[in-house]
Amino acid sequence: MKKSLPIFLMCFLLPMLVQVSKAHGSIQIDGLLDEPEWKTALVFKDFVTVEPLTGDPAKYATEARIISNENGIFVGFSNYQPISVKRVNRRFARDAKIQADRNVVSIDFDGTAVAAYDFTVGSANSRQDGIVGPGTYSGDWDGTWYSQTSSDGDYWFSEIHIPWTVAPMSESADGKRNIAVWFSRIVYNESLRFSFPNAYYSRNTFMEDWQPLEVDQVKASTLDWFPYVSYNHNLLHDQGNEVVDGSNIGLDFIWRPNSSTQLTGALKPDFGQVESDDLVVNFSAFETFVSEKRPFFTENQGLFNSAQPNEDVVLYTRRIGAGVGGGISSIDAATKLTYYGKNLDLGLFAVRQDEAGGGTTSDFISSRVQRKVDRTTIGHRLTNVKREAFGREATVQGIDLKWNRDEHNQFMAQILHSDIKQDPNELNNYQLVDEQDLAGWVNWSYSPSDEWSHAVYYSHYGDQFDMNDMGYMRRNGFDEFYAYHRHDRLQYDQESSLLSSSTEFDYSYAENTQGQRLYFWSEINFEWMFKSTRKISVDFESTSSGWDDRITRGNGSYFRSAKFKGAMRYESPRGNDFVFTVKGYTGTEDTGELYYGAYFRPKVYLTETLTLGGRIGFKKYQEWLLWDSDVSQLAGYETDRYSADFRVDWYPSTRQEIRLKFQWIGIDAEVLNSYFLNGKGRLGISDIDSASFSLSDTAFQIRYRYQLAPLSDVFLVYSRGGFYGTQTGDEGAGTLFENGWRGVNVESVIFKVRYRF
Q: Going by fewer Cβ within 10 Å, which terminus of the chain is more open, N or C?
């Protein structure tokens, strides 16, 4: 009986699908909603409050209209907002977080609650888009769609056109398509979100709660060409810099023979970035994760996304284009094929890479298969990397499961297998590798109500498991148990100054495969959101003593002391022209010694199109324990760490963007003690002295972007980077900054044009 219930409900509900009106004529995307077609649109008015998650009727009336024709889906929002209520009309760059009043429409084009596309329009017509999954969101995707906004008295309006070609989707046999939509509106100055229907991210059934709609099936077929030309001029020729000037010409294309199939290809793609990565100085044993910004790897990537609960990913595309020696390699060709069926989705992509200076190639292949039946999704993914220079082949396969048992319970699981083979040669230090191992995890989340949520997670990574050839994982050889419990208070008396509050308790236990306890960790966090939109959070964290088997880079395990951390953060009212965040924190390091620090992050909205922002921070370590690779031992440093960044963002129009970005990190580290590890993993004073050190790293970029047409841009970028390092340990912030700025090691001008035909 239980198995037949979902089928019965589906048969009952299908006739209740709302059919979207088919528009005739032409709609001008001007934000006015004055065309006759809008009078025939399907209208949704019953918006409810979901931030905070009360379910109360929306404070300000909101209407969403939707119609469709052979050109796509059209959405219009009418937002009541009296003149007495402050409107935040700031303009932002494409895909930047829109910190302003805004409208959102999310569309599941297959109605399967597996993947959907999110389209956000700010009140100043800023645009942001992304891919939504159950419990996931990726902002890396960019689609071709159109919007405009307008205002009139107590109302502001947004008008959106989403072509059928914006996303792959399955084809139906009866000429009709069942989709699902979710509309939401954010009143930024009051930290309120209204939605229709009553659905929210925190619920296990978030996507299943969307409004089902029926539209006419439209067969869409397109072929888009994206030729590009770029030129990189190095300004350091006279300093003997090895970087040379270079020009690149290449071609990307996107072919959609029908609505369910898409082939993306690139010939000699330009994977050089006009968007700079944030400056990072990493002394830990774990690799820094860097987000993807290259168009080929962000376009139509939703099927391949592979985030895990512990933030590891099976497919980490930043591996592609990284050379054997850590440099940048050129790409001969790349292709990606996706197919979306009614219950079965398929994906495959392959890249051929020329290794820098090696005369060899590397091949990267990834595939994805997933099938959904009722509330269950099961999938298989594979990655395969062949590096000719290393004589190395790495294959990772995984099977994953997601089951929404009901509105309160969700189960997720994955099992992974890696197979690494490597022939010995000069480049890999004559290392023979033939290793296979397993990893896996299971996660159960339980939300009995909107006020309470719980989760339990367990994972195992074998000693020889390795997916870092094409994936990202912090470490292997461990078992971890993790759980959290969260309570949200969503309603306060009218007299209260609070809008909402939350309390969250997290804890975890981990040990390596040798049975050594890595940590028992716990954290409690309190957060208060005020009606003024001020926000205060307080965090307390403790970690038991335990073994650190990574800090020595394979030279033994260190038994560290117990640690604690406390932090307090304040955010000013979000709708003001001057906003800021300030945070102070303190805690103990691995040796038990104290550290403390603070940062201040201001932002000034000079106009709706011109923004100044920045961040300054300072952290003091009484004894910072680091691995000194020069003498292969641990050392403790009294350390001052400085950081600063500054940004100017100016948007003269919706097509133009001028951005200035500066970052600086400075470190003074004066050695206090040099250590060796005794047989019990404790520290002993070493006879070999480690050296103090100071370093300063700077990055500066000015970028101009002009949008010729959707997905067609001109970039002009000036980049400058400096580095300074010495064995002093006591230079001070001013000297570090000056020397880091003067120590120029990168300076170039990049010109790039990419046009869509």
A: N
744 vs 114 pLDDT, higher one: 744
Looking at the predicted structure, is the pLDDT value of residue 733 above 90? yes
Give the Cα-Cα-Cα angle 64, 70, 74 (nearest 5 degrees). Answer: 15
Q: How wide is the angle at C-alpha 63 spanned by C-alphas 108 and 153, nearest 5°?
A: 135
CATH topology of domain 17-218: Immunoglobulin-like (2.60.40)
- Give the three-state DSSP class for 632: coil
Q: Nearest CA to 738 among 664, 683, 634, 668?
A: 664
Residue 326: pLDDT band by 50, 70, 90 thresholds? Answer: low
Q: How far is CA 583 from the centre of its chain?
A: 23
Q: How far apart are CA 77 and CA 449, in angstroms?
A: 30
**pLDDT tens digits for range 661-672:** 999 999 999 999
Do the beta carbons of residue 547 and residue 477 sit within 8 Å?
no
| Residue 111: partners with Cβ closer than 8 Å, 6 or more residues away | 178, 179, 180, 212
pTM equals 0.85
3-state helix, strand, coil in the chain (%, to 5): 5, 55, 35
DSSP letter string, 661-680: EEEEEEEEEEEEEEEEE-TT
Alpha carbon of residue 323 to chain centroid: 24
Contact present, 76 and 33 (Cβ < 8 Å): yes
How far apart CA 639 and CA 746 sit, in angstroms, is 27
Collapsing DSSP states into helix, strand and coil, what is residue 209? Answer: helix
Q: Which pLDDT tens digit goes with each residue over 393-429?
A: 999 999 999 988 888 999 999 999 999 999 988 877 8
DSSP letters, 532-590, are TS-EEEEEEEEE--EEESSTTSSS--EEEPPEEEEEEEEE--TTSSEEEEEEEEEEE-T
Q: Which residues contact 2 (CB under 8 A, 6 or more apart)?
A: none
CA neighbor of 689 nearest in space, from 725, 723, 733, 729: 729
